Amino acid sequence: MKLTNIKRVGMLLRPSTPELKEMFFEAKRIFESRGIEVIIDNISGGMIDVMGQPFEMLCQNSDFLVTIGGDGTLISAVRRSYRYQLPVLGIHAGKLGFLADLDFAELEIFVDKMLAGEYRIDQRAVLQATITSPNGQSEIFAFNDIVLTRPSIAKMIRLETFVDGRSFNTYYGDGVVISTPTGSTAYNLSAGGPVLFPLTQVFALTPICPHSLTQRPVVLPGHFEIEMKTPDASALVIVDGQDLVEISDSDTVHIKLASGAAQLIHRKEFNYFEVLKEKLGWGN
Ligand SMILES: NC(=O)c1ccc[n+]([C@@H]2O[C@H](COP(=O)([O-])OP(=O)(O)OC[C@H]3O[C@@H](n4cnc5c(N)ncnc54)[C@H](O)[C@@H]3O)[C@@H](O)[C@H]2O)c1
Ligand SMILES: Nc1ncnc2c1ncn2[C@@H]1O[C@H](COP(=O)(O)OP(=O)(O)OP(=O)(O)O)[C@@H](O)[C@H]1O
């Protein structure tokens, strides 16, 4: 997939970091000197004294989004803009920069390459969760992961799990991580789950500290749907480590891969295994 006729880019900055003002103005200069208008969301704008637009309006008015921050800023932008199907470029101004991997110093050269068509847009799977309660249904999307865990850190949680309508397992421990291929190198990795190549159409279901000798992570095909219930108590549903929903013992959570994908802009030469090696020490 390629971007055509780029007119306007929507920028988002890491929250509570007014020091990014200088980078924003330099990025604005780079885009505007090439005929691309730069707009900013009102939260980032408020932080650096620049007039911004509400997030939804920014998405409607942009051809693609650029985040300046870390992986958290990029994850948040991808999740919140998902329904607008906008490509997102993450500029690394954070600590790890696993996903937001374009160094700011490379931006000017990269923009010229983009305008010459030398870039790629990866289609990354997204999770969709439907929470059903006696009061109705709500829909959630996640770019990295959905975690079901206990509200009290001192207690264990029991999670009854069904796969494609059939009883599959009852997890007993700290909870589970349901991860996209993109999120597999985040919480899933810490919980002992597998690294999933980011362009695969699968998801991982990984228990967190299960009190069992037999419960292991599983990788499921993208067309499977899992259903989870917490029969004894309430539970927390954590979305990309950033949003939180509390569910009760009468609620059910259905999770599957969403029908659409998120779109990440990368350098043409982007190599996943090089990033794994450089950022996470893969193979060292
Ligand atoms: N024990 C853990 O490992 C743990 C606990 C809570 C949350 N998380 C992860 O944090 C993510 C949210 O990230 P954040 O930046 O908003 O929170 P954060 O500020 O707590 O940082 C989490 C760290 O994970 C890195 N990270 C995020 N997504 C990644 C990915 N897909 N691959 C490799 N590294 C990644 C970030 O760069 C950062 O260093 C959640 O989706 C969850 O996966 C991990
Ligand atoms: N738009 C946002 N709304 C709310 N919280 C956000 C938003 N963007 C980022 N955050 C949070 O701010 C914190 C710092 O974000 P940042 O983008 O620097 O990610 P990070 O986790 O530090 O990644 P890295 O290790 O690459 O720097 C994270 O905990 C992230 O969840």
UniProtKB/TrEMBL annotation:
Catalytic residues as annotated in Swiss-Prot or TrEMBL: 71 (proton acceptor)
One of the record's GO molecular function terms: NAD binding
Catalyzed reactions: NAD(+) + ATP = ADP + NADP(+) + H(+)
InterPro entries: ATP-NAD_kinase_N, ATP-NAD_kinase_PpnK-typ_C, NAD/diacylglycerol_kinase_sf, NADK
Residues at which NAD(+) binds: 71-72, 144-145, 155, 174, 185-190, 242
Enzyme class name: transferase
Pfam families listed in its UniProt record: NAD_kinase (PF01513), NAD_kinase_C (PF20143)
GO biological process: NAD+ metabolic process; NADP+ biosynthetic process
Gene Ontology CC: cytoplasm
Major localization class: cytoplasm
This protein's UniProt keywords: ATP-binding, Cytoplasm, Kinase, NAD, NADP, Nucleotide-binding, Transferase
Domain of life: Bacteria
Record localization: Cytoplasm
Record-linked PANTHER family: NAD KINASE
Function: Involved in the regulation of the intracellular balance of NAD and NADP, and is a key enzyme in the biosynthesis of NADP. Catalyzes specifically the phosphorylation on 2'-hydroxyl of the adenosine moiety of NAD to yield NADP.
Homology family: Belongs to the NAD kinase family.
Designated name of the protein: NAD kinase
Organism whose genome encodes this protein: Sulfuricurvum kujiense (strain ATCC BAA-921 / DSM 16994 / JCM 11577 / YK-1)
Lineage, opening ranks: Bacteria, Pseudomonadati, Campylobacterota, Epsilonproteobacteria, Campylobacterales
